[in-house]
Amino acid sequence: MNVDCPLDAFIGEMENLAGPYNTLIDVELTTSCTTGQMLKPLLQYCPKIRRLCLEGCTLDVVDAVDELYNDNLEIFAYNPGYEVTSLEEKDEEFYDGPRGLREIYTPNGGDGAQTDSFLRLLRKNQKSLQTVYANTQMPEEQEAHGEPYPNFIPVYEEWYFERLQYLTYWPGAHNVVESMFLQSIKSCVATSLRMFSAVDKPNIPMIVNTLIKSLPVEILSFSHARFDDGNEYQRSSAIVQLFKYYAELSPSEKTLKEIWFNYCDFVTDDVLDILTEIKTITRVNFTGKCTVPSDGSFLIFLQKMGHHLTEVMFADINHIGDDVLNVLCKMEHLKTVTLELITEITEEGIKHLADNTRGLCSLNMEECIELSDDSVSYINERVKNVKYVW
């Protein structure tokens, strides 16, 4: 359902809505404005909703959901900016946990959730939640009013997620919420955490201290971890310690498959070097001009990783040229290459990649260099799936 007006103006009074509205289980709403007060009739008159996705809503919808939701609601997303799991996908998963929210999504950047109501919702569902995208950045109006950041630690110091598999969080003001999330994942007992993702100036040493005491994860992602504090060495040393821990795990314990570095200032030559010791990694993502230390060390890194990488993504990096593409050609298991805002490659280099990367199935290029129609046709003849946006 997509409408370009406030929710209450579109549906009117819920009791006058024709049809069996109380049987709705999957609701997606894109409106010009939906407030928590407008949402309440929908929640009251549609008690069987299992999946609720809202676009164009105010932050107080969390209060309405916290107040009126029941155990039927499994997936809740508001202004998410992510692909939200469908009910069909969720129904295919094995799940033997309690009823309650299993996935929650907040905005991807910008103003975050109203922290008290959002954390209250998480705590109520800590035994059932499997996926949490938690943007807890303080809304601008709170900062403008000079509101103090609440001290939630005494209230939430003993909470933990029993079934959490995918966690993405923003630290929030003063990193208060970050310490709570890190504390909460130490006791994931029913299943190990599969993905850990921290966004916007996370505390890297504190994260490393938590992860080396937890079960190994499959996916590690750090985004917008850039600081002007002169402590890059401290952060890079911590990351080296983490990767050394993963590299020394026994073969049965090694699970790390994907690494994402997006606009990070701690990816040094030492970080790349120890990363090559983790032979289970099959996918790497490097984004941002500050992310790759030098072209020479990066080439060595790719050469050492060439025997097990199946997917690479490079975006907005200066020194990615044809020399990097030549290294990719020699990767025997490489299937997917994604390039965004990579401007130092050439048309001939891309054609050489398509010609000589034996297992390449997918090539995605966006805002890199302009290709002639003949070159696009040439590449399409050699690679099964090609996406080119200029």
From TrEMBL:
Gene3D superfamilies: Ribonuclease Inhibitor. It comes from the Eukaryota. InterPro entries: LRR_dom_sf (IPR032675). This is Uncharacterized protein. It comes from Circinella minor. The lineage of its organism: Eukaryota, Fungi, Fungi incertae sedis, Mucoromycota, Mucoromycotina.
